[in-house]
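Figure 2 data, in text form.
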Amino acid sequence: MANDDHIAHLKKRVTAWQAWRWKNSLLKQHKRQGLCKLPPDAIVKARDDTAAQVNRIILTFVGAVIFCVLSLLTPDSALLVGGEKLSVPLAGPVSFFGFILLAPAVLIILRIYLQIYVEHQRRLDRVAQWIPAARAPMLTPDKNPLLRGFRGLAFYLLLPLAIFAFWWKAAVFPEWGQAFAIVAAAVIAMHLTLPFRTLSWGLRTIIILGVAILALAATVGFNVSMRRPFNLFRANLSDQWLVSADLKGGVLRFANLAHASLARADLTAANLTGANLTGADLNGTNLTSAELFFANLTGAELGRANFSGANLNGANLTGAHLEFAKLAGAKIGGANLTGANFSGANLTGANLGVNLAGINLQSNLNAADLTGALGLSQQQLDRACGDAKTRLPPGLSVKLCDQH
């Protein structure tokens, strides 16, 4: 029994000795930083002031992130047109382009500023716990589940989620998507190193730069696509200059594109169902496999446009200029072609179940299906050409196209 008491006494002495060594080591460390040269009351006051400053920075950071995320709900048309302005607190009106580029940098700087104060607060807390000074009761975040969860969200999740939101918004442009993917990878790497407090900031910087370089190699070296299509549902883009715009796969259902300049734009597989393209300039535009169901193309300039595989069922093509357009495999059932000009157009494999009365069909009708066409006359077909696979209403014929 006496032996057990002796062992227990030794354990207490060893524990006390270890605590004394740790305390002395800690005090020496902070003495080098000048903290222990201050009076005890000054250290406690500095600790309390720093804790209050940390809370203020956290609230500012959270508010900035919320403002940025809500601002990112602005329609994609703001990125496409570029004239949208945002009223940013303390900065005034800022272009949406400028906001997308600068806001992530501001959030990253604010988060680094917060981390500097958090590290300073931890040093003061370690020193203050050994000082026999009177302290006012404080609400400790680590002992409150709600505050602990809020601080954990602010410290570890908010910035990565915000950068991801910026990446998603900017990814309509492939180059921007790649750049933001690299920034997001670096930010995530930075937050993953935060729990490891024994790591020096030099080593953390090396890890962050290494991850950024790997992300750059993945996006550029392996040509990983970081692009998403535009969402322009019901967007008002009338009279806009969108020449050569990349709208591949974009959602433009019921969008207003009246008199817009879309020459040579890429609208491959875009959804233009019910869109208003009255008088729009679509010369040379790529509309391969696009959905133009019930779209209004009245008076549109469609010369040399590529409608291969496009769905033009029910579309209004009244007075449309389709000279030398490619409509191979296009569906034009139920479309209004009154006064449309198909001179030189390629209608190979197209389904023309529409009223073709008075239409200029000086076109290539190879493998085209005109069995359901109304008002088609032999005089129209005499100006066109086809092949053995061209399907015509009974009693009509078409000459063979010159294979050379």
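Caption note: The longest strand covers residues 85-88.
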